[in-house]
Batch of 2 targets.
Target 1
Amino acid sequence: MKKDDIKILWVEDSIGDILLIKEAFEQVGLTHRLDVLSDGAEALNYLFKRGRYARTAKPDLIILDLNLPGISGRDIIKEMRNDPVLMRIPLVILTSSNVDRDVLEGFDASRCLYLVKPTSFEDLLKIAGQIKDFLPSVDD
């Protein structure tokens, strides 16, 4: 898969964070198709191809906030653990907490990245670069 063909699902409820990361991705040259969902229930429907997402192709990468209202990122991860196909999708946790690394237990460490949301745009650019660099290592 070429970097230009990458389909990313980002589950994030902060509009400000979404706008900033899109800008950071552009600045580091990460070409992608980005589907953004702000709700955990919608994310599960997307991942399991339910309802209006029945024809949606699986993402090549999932970026997930753990602290979502309703169905949390932790709940999404629990559901992913039960599906061998979803367990293989590279996963980036982008959250405000540094204490929840254990949520990735059971996932292939080479396919997971745990990042704490930065407080400055300069640091966000570094994180966007880390995500960009992470992608080639997960190609099959």
Target 2
Amino acid sequence: MDTDLALIVGILFGALSVPSILSAISDSRPPRVSSLMLLAGVGLITFAVLQKPGGYRLEQVPDVFFSVLGRFL
């Protein structure tokens, strides 16, 4: 898997899991699936940062996002 794609998918998984976790907590039920999704997102982000030589800087994330988006559209 491409490190840029892994980073973006990890960020999206993490962003989508937060509302689900908050909803589960407010309904007094365990956030099982959403916590697994958050864990997968953190794993993908960690994989991307460790596999790319030099890692990623915060300023690079928007450029990486749009380059990945441009590849698939």
